[in-house]
Amino acid sequence: xxSPRIAVIxxxxxxxxxxxxxxxxxxxxxxxxxxxxxxxxxxxxxxDLHEGAAQQALRECGLFEQFMAVARTEGEVLKIYEPNGxxxxxxxxxxxxxxxxxxxxxxEVDRSQLRNMLIDSLYPGSLKWNHKLKAVKTDPSGRxxxxxxxxxxxxxxxxxxxxxxxxxxxxxxxxxxxxRPFFSGITGVDVxxxxxxxxxxxxxxxxxxxxxxxxxxxxxxxxxxxxxxCVRSYGFMRLPEDWHKTCGIDWSSPAxxxxxxxxxxxxxxxxxxxxxxxxxxxxxxxxxMYMLPVGHRWGHRQGxxxxxxxxxxxxxxxxxxxxxxMEDALDFALKLKQWxxxxxxxxxxxxxxxxxxxxxxxxxxxxxxVRAERYAKETMMYLDLFFHEKGGSAMCEHFAxxxxxxxxxxxxxxxxxxxxxxxxxxxxx
Length: 429
Ligand SMILES: Cc1cc2nc3c(=O)[nH]c(=O)nc-3n(C[C@H](O)[C@H](O)[C@H](O)COP(=O)(O)OP(=O)(O)OC[C@H]3O[C@@H](n4cnc5c(N)ncnc54)[C@H](O)[C@@H]3O)c2cc1C
Prior knowledge:
The protein is α/β, with parallel strands linked by helices and 429 residues long. Helices cover 37% and strands 19% of the residues. The chain has 15 helices and 19 strands. Pfam families: FAD_binding_3. Keywords: FAD, Flavoprotein, Monooxygenase, Oxidoreductase. Residues 407-429 are annotated as: Disordered.
């Protein structure tokens, strides 16, 4: 029976979800990951997985119960503060109450928990660590449509299908399109305040159980509680791409860097907002945010494709990146599964079957381009709301308007309008 040789590059949420889905559908594949092992670096903050897309992917993976056992539904709540400490929005325990209903049903999970769950679900030996891809090359003899993978230390040959799930700076993408990510206009620092409950219980209470945004005019502190007791904060604003090199901040001394950063950009912010950065651990990472063009697409190339950030890198401001990535994986796997059943399993020669790889991948790409463009537009809209000259009131006005439209639509459809309960604290706008 024909079985194409498939490589997935990158063991992030997209690559691991895809590999799991292919393997449980008897489509063998190997994942190649550049990191040395699963502990090579801390995985960063947490992610909210949405109903319908990412959660459906986990259901298909047979991992949904495992996910729900570690997911934090209470982490979905949102608070928005003005720089002077005025609370503009507090969902209290009423998740999604002040935002459109689409924000409900998005439990948070720590990245490392999600990643470990997916890694442990793969066939033993099918994830190869310490394989840093340098380039994908066509068969040098020119006689086959196969690809060779050039890793840092060796070459592996003869792949029928190479799927780039290798994130923002994808090497696989280089063979498919000349388009490269560009700077989004937003940069700043990424910090983590460990064990906040012990270090500063009052600050911990201020953050709450989920996301806590302090939004000034074009300048923000975006904080999020993680499952391990830390709060991760991003001090983001509109600045030039090379800001971290030209700003004069002494990055070699984290304590000095935090102090300089706050003094330079957070005039008018109260101590609580400042302390989320000043009291953070001594590890300050400048983080310029990049994106691919909204509506990015390419002409299909046989035997190659992209999923996740490699295909449609977005800034994180709509909180959809990992959700689109896992939806890509689900969709890709379903397309291959259908073609396996209908075409490959019946094929008499591998040449016919290799050509038959084109159609499911092309179908996946056409649907993914439309989906990714929709999410990329939403992301751009939220970027403008996070970094608005009116600060947090712009975001609150947006939510109030969207809520009102939802209510009207429900009334027009003859349904009961969603109950509007007063939140624990008064909305100011
Ligand atoms: C600061 C920040 C906050 C975010 N917050 C959210 C959020 O709240 N919600 C949300 O939905 N999304 C969020 N995102 C986006 C989300 O992290 C990504 O969309 C998601 O991780 C994409 O998954 P991926 O598997 O496509 O790529 P990645 O997670 O980037 O994984 C790519 C993998 O490929 C490996 N790799 C890279 N190059 C190579 C190579 N040459 N050879 C071999 N392996 C390679 C990497 O080591 C990595 O393991 C955030 C992003 C950032 C930067």
